[in-house]
Amino acid sequence: MKHLFKGVVLSLGLLFFSTSEVRAQEFGGGITFGPSVSQVAGDNLGGFDKLGGFFGFYTFVPLNDTWRFQMELYYILKGSRDGSDDGGSFYNLDLHTVELPLLFQYAYSEHVFFNVGPALSILANANETDIAGSFEQSFYPISVTGIAGVGYRFNEHFSFQARGQWSLSRLRPLNTGNVNLPTYDRLFGGWRSLALTFGFGYEF
Known about the structure:
Layout: H1 2-17, E1 28-41, E2 50-62, E3 67-81, E4 91-107, E5 112-130, E6 133-135, E7 142-153, E8 158-167, H2 183-188, E9 192-203
Antiparallel strand pairs: 1-2, 1-9, 2-3, 3-4, 4-5, 5-6, 5-7, 7-8, 8-9
């Protein structure tokens, strides 16, 4: 898993950092960062109580006057947290994730734009803790995430956007030992990450 993670990051890093060499071909790029809030569907906890953040970079190529294709590479902290006021309960899940989104961006106007597309989510590390201490459970090393968002471009360099993310595939194996598990849960149930990000971008 470590070799896969390092290989993907190195390959994408070389691709992104080569942006400056191909600007003559209308490629562009920038950096992005900001806070995030998340939760995990299936953990019996409600609410976006997990505070995190993300930072990374991206490159893009214009397709026409209103559309462009954008590749990103960033680290994001997602997970879940027990946000109740009950002092007798505690739960925290940290999902340290590297995401590789492939997005299509549509310019609605000079300032407003929309993003949509899938992302490959690579789990670098998972830390799970409850009132008894830390423990380990199995998580899939790779999952697929769907992303959609809206943004505002202040000028040619600075922008802000809000995005929603949701896991299209499970984060961990489903407990199929329960023979009474409904068909819907067998097909669509299990632990899936939901996140909201609020990102600032600087375009070179």
